[in-house]
């Protein structure tokens, strides 16, 4: 039951992008095509899950026993940066086409606040365990994917629309994101 | 004279022409996430300004010592150290703001504005220009966040810097202090900003 609540809360009620404002950069930057946004979502799912697992273990078994909790930010960002580098190397070897599509965006994941944000938020979960933290990361990346892909498909239609000159580009995208966020506000109180 | 001109431009570019929020769209997460009131926006802006200034200074000083292959991780460690300092100082002295900003304080470390300036400017320029660049960009960020915070607070709760100017039970436009309001307010502010900067240039 706990897990179902985590899933619904992370995907709909507290959507990581639309109501918590984490990962806005890729949300606005990589959303002009549905295909690239799917790839980006996959990369985030992968990195976020592994990163949360690694940082959770690091925090639980090294930082807390040693009383080094204040080093949390520094160590977490280092672990994430190293992981991203690893994912980049593995992708280059295993799936060159995917690397071609995502190569530019992978370094961006390091500075994707969603990854670091979820890693930190996962520490504060009620009755936390490793399994719960990982599940939380997966649920949040599904939420990220949902927001990104829906937004990208709206943007594909926007290209055909007749938009006033001053609103073209960033403003209209922000406005669409606002309306999307308004729609997600409707899920408030679901859990 | 030309040198002085350049330095002034170097400082001013961050405020209007290359404003990090309205023009370059950097650091959007804190911009949208903490600006439900003008005070929060100002607090976040100043915290970011401090980290940006310190990291630009340090990066500019040690740039020749860092091998270019590991420069990004090195920059991130420098930035993360200052973020940790800010985190501790805020928790000790301004606990109210610490609680309001919450998760967005450790997230200053992944603000693309800071890493962007370290990589694009401080690692290539001398100390003085890097300081001016950081101050200009940082002030541009502070102004943008405070403006967005002020607009949202005025519309959403009918107050500015906690000073209420409507009666207690007046109907305010609550949407603007909720998440969708952040996107919508920023969209219209960007339009306004584009209009002004096109006119002046």
UniProtKB/TrEMBL annotation, chain A:
The keyword Metal-binding belongs to this UniProt entry's keyword annotation: no
Membrane topology: Multi-pass membrane protein
Enzyme class label: translocase
Sequence intervals crossing the membrane: 6-30, 42-64, 70-91, 103-124, 130-151, 172-190
Quaternary structure note: The complex is composed of six subunits: RnfA, RnfB, RnfC, RnfD, RnfE and RnfG.
Similarity field: Belongs to the NqrDE/RnfAE family.
Identification of the protein by name: Ion-translocating oxidoreductase complex subunit A
Automatic annotation (TrEMBL), chain B:
Assigned EC number: 7.-.-.-
Bilayer topology term: Multi-pass membrane protein
Signal peptide per UniProt: none
Cell compartments where the protein resides: Cell membrane; Endomembrane system
Main location: membrane
Keywords: Cell membrane, Electron transport, Membrane, Translocase, Transmembrane, Transmembrane helix, Transport
Source species, domain of life: Bacteria
Residues passing through the membrane, by range: 21-39, 45-62, 74-94, 100-118, 130-151, 171-193
Family of the protein in this entry: Belongs to the NqrDE/RnfAE family.
Physiological role: Part of a membrane-bound complex that couples electron transfer with translocation of ions across the membrane.
Assembly: The complex is composed of six subunits: RnfA, RnfB, RnfC, RnfD, RnfE and RnfG.
PANTHER family (alphabetical): ELECTRON TRANSPORT COMPLEX PROTEIN RNFE, ION-TRANSLOCATING OXIDOREDUCTASE COMPLEX SUBUNIT E
Name this protein carries in UniProt: Ion-translocating oxidoreductase complex subunit E
Organism: Lutibacter aestuarii
Gene from which this protein is expressed: rnfE
């Amino acid at each position: 039951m706990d897990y179902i609540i985590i899933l619904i809360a992370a995907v709909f009620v507290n959507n990581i992008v639309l109501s918590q404002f984490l990962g806005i950069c890729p949300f606005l930057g990589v959303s002009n095509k549905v295909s690239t946004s799917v790839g980006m979502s996959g990369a985030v799912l992968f990195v976020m899950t592994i990163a949360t697992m690694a940082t959770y273990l690091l925090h639980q078994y090294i930082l807390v026993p040693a009383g080094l909790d204040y080093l949390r930010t520094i160590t977490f960002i280092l672990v994430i940066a190293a992981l991203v580098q690893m994912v980049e190397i593995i992708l280059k070897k295993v799936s060159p086409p995917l690397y071609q599509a995502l190569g530019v965006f992978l370094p961006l994941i390091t500075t994707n606040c969603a990854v670091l944000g979820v890693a930190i938020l996962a520490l504060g979960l009620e009755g936390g365990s490793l399994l719960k933290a990982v599940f939380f990361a997966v649920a949040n990346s599904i939420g990220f994917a949902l927001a990104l892909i829906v937004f990208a498909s709206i943007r594909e239609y926007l290209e055909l629309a007749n938009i006033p000159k001053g609103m073209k580009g960033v403003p209209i995208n922000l406005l669409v994101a606002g309306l999307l966020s308004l729609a997600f506000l409707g899920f408030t109180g679901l859990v | 004279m030309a040198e002085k001109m350049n330095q002034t431009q170097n400082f001013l570019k961050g405020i209007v022409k290359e404003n990090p929020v309205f023009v370059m769209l950097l650091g959007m997460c804190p911009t949208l996430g903490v600006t439900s009131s003008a005070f929060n926006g100002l607090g976040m802006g100043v915290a970011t300004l401090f980290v940006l200034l310190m990291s630009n200074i340090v990066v500019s000083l040690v740039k020749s010592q860092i091998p270019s292959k590991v420069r990004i991780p090195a920059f991130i460690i420098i930035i993360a150290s200052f973020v940790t300092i800010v985190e501790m100082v805020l928790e000790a002295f301004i606990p109210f703001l610490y609680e309001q900003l919450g998760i967005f304080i450790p997230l200053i470390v992944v603000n693309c504005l800071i890493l962007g300036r370290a990589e694009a400017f401080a690692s290539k320029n001398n100390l003085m220009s890097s300081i001016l660049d950081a101050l200009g960009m940082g002030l541009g960020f502070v102004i943008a966040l405070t403006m967005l915070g002020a607009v949202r607070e005025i519309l959403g709760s009918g107050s500015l810097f906690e000073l209420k100017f409507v009666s207690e039970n007046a109907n305010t436009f609550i949407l603007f202090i909720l998440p969708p309001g952040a996107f919508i307010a920023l969209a219209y502010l960007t339009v306004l900003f584009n209009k002004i900067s096109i006119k002046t240039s």
